[in-house]
């Protein structure tokens, strides 16, 4: 589709910002709304229901009723599978609409909304649907006088609070295993990107998911999000977002009913390139492409690049040659690879970090300024700092923008020491032709995922999550069922 055609479709798009509770679109009980504007050009997309505690109460009541009467949990796994697969099929049938909503709502290039976000969300929902009738329960090895069954049961009412950087994908990672296991779900999307979540709920109902099983309450974290975390009738909460908010979620879970609380939080991932890297061009391409993908708004972005001192100059020369390829463009142009920052507040945050990097003495080699100033949207040029040390804020704190910090190291022990000197532990990478070094380094790095001679290798079959203040629990893979199911032992005495 041409850029003009995408803009024409955007202009004709009708936005329904009502919440989705009990199978119906409804405005907030308070009648409050919030303005939904596009970071692409700053124009108003529409108004969205500003849900609060009263709406959360209604959504929880609908979810609880659906769970207790077993309209979904009581269906055979094969039946839930068929509905989930149809749900995935319908997502793909609405691919252009969902991709356009995603791009308009949070600014990512339509190229990636189409090729990454929509198919990844559909694949996630399909995969968990396919998996649910292939998970077996267990019989414990007890004496002949007893029979002990170990079975998985849905935990009940699950609240999912997701961020704005990958709205559909993050929602799918939470709702797919929770729904497949038989739970009822309440999704709270970010107020910065609520539109695809609301549309997904309608599509799920069309696919045959019973009313009340999947609800969506848009709103602010301090209102709708806090109400979910504190609710006495929510059994489990899955959260993806900042570390500071994750700590609040855990506190609220403890203050209320000790609900399960799973958090996937921030990151400051280390990308280590050794002098014996087997393919320097590939390492450069991965380093640059991974940090600027999605405008740098990725929790796993390799924002700390450690390069062995003996090859750093050569590496930087190659890297700087690639940076212009990521100049921000019109997100509705299918040639654009870097789009808009999600909103003015996030742009101010990123620009603040860039200024701190300059003031701290880091050498700015590229970017560092706003871009596309006449667009009405929010754009930052891809930014690269050299001569960074671990004490600088740009090396310590999650920026969530297109900013790369380059640090030097002398040997692999030095690299690991620097890489681990962070409160985060989401992802990391090492590039080396020495297999023993790669394995030892991977073992030494404190991260939920370690890449070797690549970055961003990914599949729904592998778990995603972090250690330290990057959170707990795992999204994706069969391990995600551990978050949304309870193990029950049934002990039967024989004779």
UniProtKB/TrEMBL annotation:
Keywords: Oxidoreductase. Residues 28-489 form the Aldehyde dehydrogenase domain. Pfam families: Aldedh (PF00171). CDD domains: ALDH_GABALDH-PuuC. SUPFAM superfamilies: ALDH-like. The keyword Oxidoreductase applies. PROSITE patterns: ALDEHYDE_DEHYDR_CYS (PS00070). GO terms for molecular function: aldehyde dehydrogenase [NAD(P)+] activity. Gene3D superfamilies: Aldehyde Dehydrogenase, Chain A, domain 1, Aldehyde Dehydrogenase, Chain A, domain 2. Belongs to the aldehyde dehydrogenase family. This is Aldehyde dehydrogenase. It comes from Massilia atriviolacea.
């Amino acid at each position: 589709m041409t850029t003009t055609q995408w803009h024409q479709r955007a202009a004709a798009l009708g936005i329904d910002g009502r919440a989705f509770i009990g199978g119906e679109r409804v405005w907030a009980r308070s009648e409050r709304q919030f303005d939904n504007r596009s970071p692409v050009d700053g124009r108003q997309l529409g108004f969205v229901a500003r849900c609060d505690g009263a709406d959360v109460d209604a959504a929880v009541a609908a979810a609880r009723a659906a769970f207790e009467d077993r309209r979904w949990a009581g269906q055979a796994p094969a039946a839930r599978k068929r509905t989930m697969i149809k749900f995935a099929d319908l997502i793909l049938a609405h691919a252009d609409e969902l991709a356009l909503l995603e791009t308009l709502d949070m600014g990512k290039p339509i190229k990636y909304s189409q090729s990454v976000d929509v198919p990844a969300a559909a694949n996630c929902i399909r995969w968990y649907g396919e998996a649910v009738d292939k998970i077996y329960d267990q019989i414990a090895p007890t004496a002949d006088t007893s029979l002990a069954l170990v079975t998985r049961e849905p935990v009940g009412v699950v609240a999912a609070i997701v961020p704005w950087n990958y709205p559909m994908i993050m929602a799918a990672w939470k709702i797919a295993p929770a729904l497949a296991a038989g739970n009822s779900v309440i999704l709270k999307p970010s107020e910065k990107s609520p539109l695809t979540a609301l549309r997904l709920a309608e599509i799920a109902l069309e696919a045959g998911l019973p009313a009340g099983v999947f609800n969506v309450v848009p709103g602010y974290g301090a209102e709708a999000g806090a109400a979910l975390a504190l609710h006495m009738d929510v059994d489990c909460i899955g959260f993806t977002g900042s570390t500071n908010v994750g700590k609040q979620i855990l506190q609220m879970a403890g203050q209320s009913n000790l609900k399960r609380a799973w958090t996937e939080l921030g990151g400051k991932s280390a990308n280590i390139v050794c002098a014996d890297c087997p393919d320097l061009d590939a390492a450069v391409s991965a380093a640059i492409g991974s940090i600027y993908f999605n405008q740098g708004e990725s929790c796993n972005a390799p924002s700390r690049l450690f390069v062995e001192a003996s090859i750093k100059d050569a590496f930087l020369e190659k890297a700087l040659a690639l940076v212009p390829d990521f100049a921000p463009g019109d997100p509705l142009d299918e040639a654009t690879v870097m789009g808009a920052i999600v909103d003015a507040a996030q742009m101010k945050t990123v620009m603040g970090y860039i200024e701190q990097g300059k003031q701290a003495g880091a050498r700015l080699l590229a970017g560092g300024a706003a871009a596309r100033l006449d667009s009405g949207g929010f754009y930052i040029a891809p930014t690269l700092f050299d001569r960074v040390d671990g004490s600088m804020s740009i090396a310590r704190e999650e920026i969530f923008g297109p900013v790369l910090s380059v640090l030097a190291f002398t040997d692999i022990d030095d690299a690991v020491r620097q890489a681990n000197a962070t409160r985060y532990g989401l992802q990391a990478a090492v590039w080396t032709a020495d297999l023993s070094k790669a394995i030892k380094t991977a073992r030494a790095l404190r991260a939920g995922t370690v890449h070797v001679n690549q970055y961003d290798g990914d599949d729904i079959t592998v778990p995603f999550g972090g250690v330290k203040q990057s959170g707990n629990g795992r999204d994706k893979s069969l391990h995600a069922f551990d978050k949304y199911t309870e193990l029950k032992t049934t002990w039967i005495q024989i004779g």
